[in-house]
Amino acid sequence: LQPGVLASHIPPTQQGHSPPPGLNFHKDERTQKQYNKLKKKLEQKQMKGENNILHSTPPLSPRKGHSPPPGLNFHKDERTQKQYNKLKKKLEQKQMKGENNILHSTPPLSPRKDLVNGNRAKTETSEDGEESSIQDEEDDASIAEILANVKSPQVAELSSRSALIKWGPPDDTADLDICESDLRYEVLLSDKGRDGKYKSIYNGEAQSCSLYSDVVLYSTSGSPPSPPPAPTLLEAGTSWLRLGWTRRPSDEDYTLQMDDRESGHGFLAVYNGKETACLAQQLRHYTSYRFRLRASNDEGDSRWSDEVHYKTLPSRPGAPPRPVVKGRIHSKMFKIKWEPPIDRGGTDITCYTLELHSERGWNVIYTGSDTEHVCDRLNPGTTYQVRVCAESPGGRSEFSDPATVTTEPVCPGACNAPRLHGKPRQTSLTLRWHYPEQDGGSPVTELELLVRGAQSPEPAVPSSSPVERIAYKGRDTECTVGDLSPGTAYVFLLRAYNRIGSPKPAVPSSSPVERIAYKGRDTECTVGDLSPGTAYVFLLRAYNRIGHGPWSEPLEVKSGAAPPDTPSPPQVSCIAGGITHVEWVAPPGNGAPVSDYRLDMGGGDTLNIVYQGSSTDCDLKSIPPATVCHFRLQAGNSAGWSPFSETSVITTPPGPPGSLTLRKTSVTTPTSLTVSWSEPANHGSPILHYVLETSDPAQPIITCDTTSYQLTGLSPHTTYKLKCRAVNEVGPGPLSPTLRLATLQLPPSPPKLECSPAPGYNHLKLKWGEGRNSQFTTFTVYMENPRNPNEKHVVYQGTNFSCKVNKLQELTTYRFYITATNDAGQGPYSEAYPFTTCTAPPAPLKGNSAGWSPFSETSVITTPPGPPGSLTLRKTSVTTPTSLTVSWSEPANHGSPILHYVLETSDPAQPSITCDTTSYQLTGLSPHTTYKIQDLKPGTDYAVCVQVHLEEIVGIASEPTLFTTPPCEPDQPNPPKLVTKTRTSLALKWNAAVDNGAHVMHYILESDQGNATGDFKEISKSKNKNFTLSKLTPSTCFRFRLAAVNQHGKSPQFTTFTVYMENPRNPNEKHVVYQGTNFSCKVNKLQELTTYRFYITATNDAGQGPYSEAYPFTTCTAPPAPLKAPKISDIGMRTCTVEWQSARPLGSDPIVYCLQMSRIRDQDYKTVYRGSETRTALSELEGGAEYTVRVCPIRVRPDGDVSGSYSTPATFSTLPLPVEVTASALSTKQTSPSHVNNTGKQLFIWKNLSDQQMAGFIVLGLTTLAVFAAAIMQYCFIH
């Protein structure tokens, strides 16, 4: 036995000897218990007066053993004191060596050797908790030698299955003052002692044990793991976070939860498994999330770890909306403004970059945080593009859509002096000049030449100088000046005009009173005590300690004025011809002259602008008759507009009826037409009747009281022009637009049928016309059966004028009929034409010649090349129902090599191609004499001819040869259709199948009898194309298929395809989405961005084939629904407001809108707005122009925008701009004399004209000018 040794296998040869060196004796739980027990005894002694022991020495730690054998006494007072003295002595020796701190910083130690599992416990505790040795190597060796002298065990109470083993303590333990209860024994057992293999059967303090069976090991339950450390962030992205943690030995599974505070759902699990990392996806950019981790094993779950916060990275912001112009566009600058992007990437925008596109490309003009910038130093009348991008900590966005801005043009520059062209004449001379070098950003529209010299007899423009006049005004670069005086010097001045005007000299201005308005260090001031509407000049200079600097360039500013007073109500009067004259009195201007008037007219609360200009009267046209009209006036000057005047009310007199529109009806015959119309507006007077004007000479004017009329007695196939107007007591209304209607044509009459002069004995050649069939009339020739006169069959049908009837008998009379068919239908049958075949000649005999004479001498001559010889087509045996092979003999080339042949054909199914006129080339052939024509129809006649092409000559086409493709089995008919059904019967019908040249003998209808096994059985076989099934089982599905049969066989059966779709939620479940014979199908009611798996099988007469492999297809993103047409409001001369309805959102994706605008005459849509608002204002429009706008919703997604369809365009017209004319031109441009101003001032006329109306006036003006020029030329030629 080895006392104090646990689970140590000691060979028998080592029993009774000292243990091997190097054994470590460790302190265990028994040592602590002994220490506590010894300390308790010493405290009891302290109470008896032995206080010096506890205060001078650390308490001792005796071991607590198991129940000792009877008769053993332990823990005696003397022994306790001896142990204490011995330990104290050794500790003092250690202290002498410099280790004084050991006794005061370590817990009390036992002087005995602490034996745990046979090892020596030689430890002590230092100040930082670490263990160190306190025993000598000599003490260890002496203790181990004494403990090794244990006596051999004795066996007692031996039985067949158990034995009692006893032993005693080792000798000399009293010298070491070791209590026997502190000794532990280990018993080793070997089944065969000679083998030297022992196993431990007992370990304890008793001195006896019993041997029993093998020990069974059981373990208590474990415990759940402790809370794991918080997860750490490994990597972060804009929409994902990768977290990781460390695995511990007690951890098996992990649960990671995330808390999104914005969702309000609390902590939700994002990962469950054994991995030590997790990727959290589909997160929002630049958002903080909370995470916590829990570990689990078989014993349970741990508590949650500490919560940690991690934040996703910011993403790149989206593109900003299109920039817009703020304020007015000047000739050299404009202010641009933009909005921040809708998607800012989760952070604030830190910087914007603005780029300007000019002739040099894109250039950066601004970088900063502001949302507006002034673009200056630009060229007048130039188009620029501006775009902007945003920057944030997440990156730089894409550039916005470019905004197009055109600067305002200015007047053109000065022209160079004109030059003389040619020699001057007595009364005229010719000048030339160039356009100015600078046009001011707008093309030069007009040049004006001013002359100073002798008094002109009729000056064109009043001038302060009597010798000045306008010699030329136009767009040419040269002119001839007449009405000059001989020998007189003239001065010519030239200036250019564009749509802005002409250059104007600077107007000098000065102020007789000067004063100092401000003196200080600020950079701005307010100057008071100014007069309204007065021009002032401001000069600025700076001072320093030396003195003041020079004055700056003068600044001319005119002070503002107040708007005019409220004008008086306008005076309104009606003039004959539907014209309303309105005049008014100018109100006081309040510091600025009244420069403009605005006249509104309407039928009540809604009033619209009908006139705007500087005149104090106007004439209004196109006012509806019998209408109550309200008028109000507003005056304006440079300061603004005055309040509206009081309203003037007038009722217009009744007028003629409005226009109407003729409509065509379906009642049309070759001799009659029926038209109808809607009743127009009567304009205050009831309609009496209608007048219908026609182009029929027999009935040019028709009067009726109803809104429809039928014209009879017309010529067939003739086009008539119809117009209609309504008449009331006031007079007739305007004529309606011309309606062109045509009567139907009559079916053609049958032509005269003729037979060739030389009829055959077994055929007849029939002819009924000559030339080209330009009308593509179809002719049908019938032959009467000689045995049954009531039976006729078709021998020819086509567009040719001749045919050949074969397989006839000799000396037999046949009767033929002919009809003609066109778009109007089939004409009547002709009379019977009898033709008789001739007598058949006898068979030819072989020749019986006596012979030929000898040949003469040979003469040689070479003739020039000529046209090739004739060709004759031959049909070969290689013929199929869809192809035929033709061949011909190679003709004589007559001295010129053959290049190729051209094969021509005419197909009866194509009426535009005929045998004698067609040039439809099937193919260009090499010089071979055989060709296969493919893709033909079975059982069809084809006429084919061939033409040879030589090097320089094209041969004559051969005579057309008729070929017939052999018939074959019919095509597969269409599936039968259900006509009617009841609970026990079904009625089916079907269309005729294509017979492919042989008549269909019967149809075979098969059914599966409702068993759904695919086993079809024949249920009908007849020529009929309908069938009724009766005595069927109610609520049963029946499948049918149809086949056509002719003399060549049965039509093939269709292959039935079945498409299955896998259930995304249950992959083992499939359902049919299509079953039929088509090669495509459409699957509806799917979800967006979802992957679906499809399978397909094919079924024919042999049964159903195997399933295909799975084909995954993914649906795309759903676009927004289209919107209704936008609404236009607040229409002005250059502005309007556009509104549209909002689109229904799809998921969490935002919706933006794209508005496009185009001129109606251009039809070139351009984007004018893009954003999330449903209302925008359009500016910088052209006055008096027609525009159309449309809008589409856009679904903004991270993977790309999805655009919906554009709405229906909405059309609107801006208010026209005022037209400036002079008093001299008013006499030719205005019909009312009230507009003529004798003072020569410029007047403004409001023209409410569209682009089409303006184009009409231009054409009318050019026509008038041409007529006037022609009259002048005629007058010159006559005189």
Automatic annotation (TrEMBL):
InterPro entries: E3_ligase_FN3/SPRY, FN3_dom, FN3_sf, Ig-like_fold. It comes from Diaphorina citri (Asian citrus psyllid). This is Fibronectin type-III domain-containing protein 3A-like. The gene is LOC103509063. The chain crosses the membrane at residues 1254-1278. Residues 126-138 have a biased composition (Acidic residues). Keywords: Membrane, Transmembrane, Transmembrane helix. It holds the Pfam family fn3. Residues 111-125 have a biased composition (Basic and acidic residues). Gene3D superfamilies: Immunoglobulins (2.60.40.10).
